[in-house]
Amino acid sequence: MALRHVVNLSLFGVAFAQSVRGHATMASNFVFRQLFDTKSSTYTYLLGDAESKDAVLIDPVIEHAKRDAQLVKDLNLNLKFAINTHMHADHITGTGELKKLTNCKSVISKASGAKADIHIDESDVIEFGTHKLRVFSTPGHTNGCVTYYIPEQGMAFTGDALLIRGCGRTDFQEGNSTNLYENVHGKIFSLPDETILYPAHDYKGMMSTTVDEEKRLNPRLTKSLSEFVEIMENLNLAYPKMIDKALPANKACGLYDLPEEYQT
Amino acid sequence: MALRHVVNLSLFGVAFAQSVRGHATMASNFVFRQLFDTKSSTYTYLLGDAESKDAVLIDPVIEHAKRDAQLVKDLNLNLKFAINTHMHADHITGTGELKKLTNCKSVISKASGAKADIHIDESDVIEFGTHKLRVFSTPGHTNGCVTYYIPEQGMAFTGDALLIRGCGRTDFQEGNSTNLYENVHGKIFSLPDETILYPAHDYKGMMSTTVDEEKRLNPRLTKSLSEFVEIMENLNLAYPKMIDKALPANKACGLYDLPEEYQT
């Protein structure tokens, strides 16, 4: 009751029309969707250019390749690249299935050691329409981890290098705590404070963070390097349950050596 | 390899600084976070004003009240209102717990029949800082369902009235298929096509949609009224497993009559 008619609604209607136009201008031709896989708690990201229709998917999951291809179609986009931030150990990448369902090319870092149509490396730029994803090499969780940064939108996709109030484990797959710490501090934390960070996973229902928040609040990465290394050495995590299926499949871009249940 | 150095990186650095500044201006003082509860597949939304620090939470879930209050604190916000889109049947609202953890007031529609500090109705406006949420009454899933619309951002929070490629069930809690159809068409679909719609739930890992997409692609609501009513009458859904715990608790804003496991 107390809130009723705080604003004159006829005036509100006018402001509304103006601000929606303003918003449409601000949003320009950038299309963005975050998607989720509940089984592995993986986030997939669709980024597109509404004019050229070119789109990219970051970290697709095999079980959702059809969902993702359908969304690309629903939004009248053409999938140009299906990209991974690294060779995942907890799920099978959707890039192989997406190559069957669309005309996309698969992309992963050269340092990952995985097959793909295109291998990227530090300072490369992936273009879709007028938009540009800049590649930062951020190894530590694995040797091939990269962060994709889209400066115009103030967004970065950090894979498992930096998670929300956490980071990827460093106890398998060439994990190296010192490298992870130095790359997060040297590269991700050097982005503008307001940069929105989108990780490959979250396990608590959080979906994004910012450079500012993680610099202030990350319980591991706000520590000194030596304290960080000690924390990472004492996590005592279980053996990753999907790793023996995921790595052989992901080495081949999710296309070959698929476990029986994924073969189509 | 093919992508390497498509853009001259020294020039890119300059463009980057400019566009990040541009983005900071565009984003203005609006803070936004989507949050998820995996158990009930419920989305919670935090909206804030970075200058006045006033914030609102839409559809908080009791199990995540501490997470949500911590995020409010991490972002240096003050929670003014904890709001529900309707009296939920699948989870217990977090509004009661949030009233204990913060100084917020609880808000729900008058038509819901639930207790709250503030009852809202059609055309009310909820203010936080310079931002305004406009209330649309959109009954059909329940009598008290509302949609919260923030015109300046081109966003609407549709609760269970409209889901992504779906809608809330209409077979319990005063459900009425004709009302739901007419309110979605008359109110939500009358918003600008580019309006981003954030539902109370999704079960397939999708997080948002737009008016345009649902007008084109919603498998139920693109049908005629009579076809829609027939579809809704033949869903044969299971009895909601949480309803007998959730409704009594939610009638009291999640504060009283809590099942034993939630009592603090």
TrEMBL record, chains A, B:
Domain Metallo-beta-lactamase: 41-201
Pfam entry (one): Lactamase_B
Keywords: Dioxygenase, Metal-binding, Oxidoreductase, Signal
Residues in the signal sequence: 1-17
MF terms in GO: dioxygenase activity
Gene3D superfamilies: Ribonuclease Z/Hydroxyacylglutathione hydrolase-like (3.60.15.10)
Source organism, top-level taxon: Eukaryota
Keyword ATP-binding: no
Protein name: Persulfide dioxygenase ETHE1, mitochondrial
Provenance organism: Nicrophorus vespilloides (Boreal carrion beetle)
Taxon lineage: Eukaryota, Metazoa, Ecdysozoa, Arthropoda, Hexapoda
Gene: LOC108559405
